[in-house]
Design goal:
The structure holds two protein chains of two kinds. By secondary structure, chain A is an alpha+beta fold. Chain A folds into two domains: 330 residues, BirA Bifunctional Protein, domain 2, CATH 3.30.930.10; 94 residues, Rossmann fold (3-Layer(aba) Sandwich), CATH 3.40.50.800. Helix content of chain A is 42%, strand content 19%. Chain A has 17 helices and 16 strands. In chain A, β15 and β16 form a beta hairpin. The termini of chain B are far apart. In chain B, β12, α14 and β13 form a beta-alpha-beta unit. In chain B, the strands form three sheets. Chain B has a nine-stranded mixed beta sheet with strand order 1-4-5-11-10-9-6-8-7. Chain B has a five-stranded mixed beta sheet with strand order 13-12-14-15-16, sandwiched between helices. Chain B contains 17 helices and 16 strands. Chain B is globular. Chain B folds into four domains: 45 residues, Orthogonal Bundle (Helix Hairpins); 152 residues, BirA Bifunctional Protein, domain 2 (2-Layer Sandwich); 158 residues, BirA Bifunctional Protein, domain 2 (2-Layer Sandwich), CATH 3.30.930; 91 residues, Rossmann fold. Chains A and B meet through α1, β1, β2, α3 and β4 of A and α3, β1, α6, α12 and α14 of B.
Chain lengths: 435, 509
Amino acid sequence: MVVREKILDMVIGCFKRHGAKRIDTPAFELKETLTEKYGEDSGLIYDLKDQGGELLSLRYDLTVPFARYLAMNKVKKMKRYHVGKVWRRESPTIVQGRYREFCQCDFDIAGQFDPMIPDAECLKIMCEILSGLELGDFIIKVNDRRILDGMFAVCGVPESKFHAICSSIDKLDKTSWKDVRHEMVVKKGLAPEVADRIGDYVQCHGGVSLIEQMFQDPRLCQNKQAREGLGDLKLLFEYLTLFGIAEKISFDLSLARGLDYYTGVIYEAVLLQTPAQAEESSNVGSVAAGGRYDGLVGMFDPKGYKVPCVGLSIGVERIFSIVEQRMKTFGQKIRTTETQVFVATPQKNFLHERLKLIAELWDAGIKAELLYKNNPKLLTQLHYCEDMGIPLVVIIGEQEMKEGIIKLRLVASREEVAIKRENLVAEIQKRLSES
Amino acid sequence: MAERAALEELVRLQGERVRGLKQQKASAEQIEEEVAKLLKLKAQLGPDEGKQKFVLKTPKGTRDYSPRQMAVREKVFDVIISCFKRHGAEVIDTPVFELKETLTGKYGEDSKLIYDLKDQGGELLSLRYDLTVPFARYLAMNKLTNIKRYHIAKVYRRDNPAMTRGRYREFYQCDFDIAGQFDPMIPDAECLKIMCEILSSLHIGDFLVKVNDRRILDGMFAICGVPDSKFRTICSSVDKLDKVSWEEVKNEMVGEKGLAPEVADHIGDYVQQHGGVSLVEQLLQDPKLSQNKQALEGLGDLKLLFEYLTLFGIADKISFDLSLARGLDYYTGVIYEAVLLQTPVRPGEEPLGVGSVAAGGRYDGLVGMFDPKGRKVPCVGLSIGVERIFSIVEQRLEALEEKVRTTETQVLVASAQKRLLEERLKLVSELWDAGIKAELLYKKNPKLLNQLQYCEEAGIPLVAIIGEQELKDGVIKLRSVASREEVDVRREDLVEEIKRRTSEPLCIC
C-alpha cells in the first residue's frame, strides 16, 4: 500500500501541477449509460443483480462516466483528473498486473480550443509522470485514427472490415507482421495484396520526418482524412519540441488502440526494456495511453451537443508491479507507518505515566506509539522500534521521574540524552525537523 | 418505414392522452389502462434504432463529487488520515466486492440491504456493506494476530436514501481498528482519544461521546426480566432513544414487541441515566445489577477505561449512557458513539445531539467466524461518518464565504500580444520541469484581459506575462493578481522568484 500511495501521490502531483480539478463518480452507473460504449468489450462489464430497482453496472473505465458528467452538468470546458477503481470481467493474469478490479488515473481536457495545444499537454504530462517514477527509458507511440482510416481506404480495405483490421494491426506490438498478416488474410478475409500494402505502411515509425514523408506519399496524400491527421500530427510535433519532449515521441503507423471512441490522435507509452528485463514477463505492455475522442459526450447529450475531449490514462497497476518487483530485487525495506517516537518504560507500573506522556505528544501533533501492555519489557519495546523503523524513543522510569527528566534515545545510534520534561516536545520537534 | 412513422405517431398521441389524464387527475385505473396501451405500442416499435433516449443521472442514492466537493473532501480526509498516522496505523485496502458467502450472516436484519452482483457464470459476489467484515476476513485469511490499521473507502447499502440528510446508498467510511490480544482497555481508550482528536481538529462544533457496554446492556435486560429471546429486539428499541421519547420507545416495546409493562418500566429506570465515572461507581453499587456477572465485567472495564481517558485528557467529553445500544450484532464489549451538540434553544437546557458523526466498539468474536479453527482475534475500532461531516464543513465554508480553490495552480503563463504561443509553451514547460504549478490558456492569441480574468476566477495568485518588448530585454513581467503590482524579472531568475513568493507562509504574492 505504501508503494501504491507513493506512486499515486506522484501521479496526482503531476496532474495538480497542470491545473486539473478532481472529480469522483459512483462505482456503478445505470446500465443504459454504459451500453454501447465499449464495442466488443461490452461482455466484460459487471452487472448488478436486478433487485427490483434500477438496472446497474460497475463502471468499466473513467472516461464514459466523465462524458456522462459533462453532459449531465452541461459543462463545456473542464480540465479534470480522476483516480478510481474500475471493474472488468477479464481473464486475470495477475503476474502482468491485469486484475478484474484495478485503479485508473485519468486526466482529460474537455472543450473547444485551438488545435493540438491540449493534446500536447497530455503528452507532456505522460512524460513527466513516467520520468518522475524513474521506471527507466520509455517511448510514446503516436498515431491518428484518421491516418489509420485513410491508410485502410487507400490500401483497399473494405469499410466494413476497418474495425476488424484495426484490431489485427493493434497486435503488432506483441506479434510479428507475419502472424498479423496471416490473421488478416486467413481469418478476416482480406485480399493478400491489400494486406501487403498495409504492411508497407504499418511497419514505419519515426519522428517528424516520417510525417513529412507521409505527406509526400502519392497514395496517402490523396486521402482527405489522412491529410487532416498528418497535419495535426505535424503541429503536435512542433509543440512537443517546444515542450522539450520530442525525442521521446515516435510516430508509429502500427498503433491502433482498442477502444471505439477515439476520433483523432492516439498514443501509448511503453517502457523500453534491457534484454534481461525482457525475460521477465512483468515488463510487457503499455504503462499509459490515451487519445482524442470528440464524439463521446455528444452521445449523452439529448441534443447531441458535442464537447471535444482529449485525455490519458496511467496504468498504475502495471507500474505498482514493476516497482514492487524492483524493490524485492534490490531488497529495499519500506516503512509501513510514519511513527516518529515510541513511548517506553524500563520498569513495571508505569502505564499511567506512559499514557499521560503519549497524550502530550499526540496533542502536539507528534506521531507516537506505545505497546498495549501494562508492564512491557524494555528489550521488547526497543525491538519493536527497530522492526518498525521508529527513529526515537522516550523512556520514562523511576530514575527519570525523580530527576524530572525524560531520556531521549536515538534508535539508530543507541545514543541517549536526558531532556527536561517541560522541554520534551520542543526538543523532539527540533530533532524531527533536522532529520 | 411508413409503418414505423405511423406507429410513432400513435405512440405520441397515446403519450399525450396519458399526460392529459394525469393532468386532469383522472382515476388511477383509467391512467393505468392507458399507460398499458402506451407500453404495448412502444413494445411494437421494438428496440430504439439510432439515438438512445434515457435519463442522464447517477443511480439512486449515489452522487458525483464536483471539484468543489472534492476539495472539501480532501481537506477532511487530510485531517482524519493525519490523525490515524499519528497513532501509528498502517493502511490497507480490500476489493469493493466480496464473495457473497463472506458477507452472509454477518449483518442480521440489515442483510437485505446488501447489493448483489448478477450471476454471470462466475463466483457469486456482493458489494461490501462496511469495512469491518472485510477486515475480519483479511485478518483470518492472512492469519494475522495483531495489526493496527486504517481503511478509507466507499461502502454500499440498498437503503432508503435521504440525500438531504446525508444518507446515501454509496458512501465513504473511515475506519480505524486495533486487532490483537492486549492488556485490557488500552487500545479501547486510544480509539476514543482518536475520535476526540479528529472531531476537535475538524472544528465542526462541540461534541459528546456516549459510551456503554454490550455486557452491561445484556446484564441489565436480564435483571429487568427481559426474556433471552427478546434481547436483540429490545436492544434495537432502546437504540432509538436518541431520536424518540421514552414513551414512544416503551410503547414499541410493550405494544409491538410484547414486553411486559413492569419489565419495560425497570428498563426505563436504567436507560434514562447518563453521567461520568460516578455513574459507573453508582451502578457497581446497584443491588440488582451487581448480582449480574456480565454487568459487573462491563462496569469494571468501563471504570478502567475512564481512568485511561482521564490520563488522555478527554474524560470531560465522554458520557456513560445506558441508552446507547448500537445496531450491529457483532459488538461484544464497549460501544461508543459521538454526537455533535447543538446549542440549546433555551438557556439552562442540555445541548441536543443532532445525529452521530462517529461510532465504534469492541467485537471479539468476528474474526473467529472466518477462521476455520474458530481462532479468535479480539478487535476494537471506530468509524468516522464522513458524509455528514462533508455537509457540515461545506455549509460552514459557505457561511464564512470562504472561497475554496479547486486547483492549486500558482502561475498563469500569459502573453500580452499576438503570436507568442511558442514562447508561452516554452516558458510553461520550464516552470513545470521546475515543479511549479502552472497553466496557460489553450488559445493561440488570447486577450490579456481574458487571461487575467481566468486567474481571478480560479484564484491563481501570479501571472508571468510575456511581451515582445520584454522578450527583447530578456525579462518576464511577474504580476501579483491580488495587488495588481507588476515587476520585471530576468528570465533566468524567474523560477527562483516564483518559488520564493509561493513558499512564503501567508503567500503574500
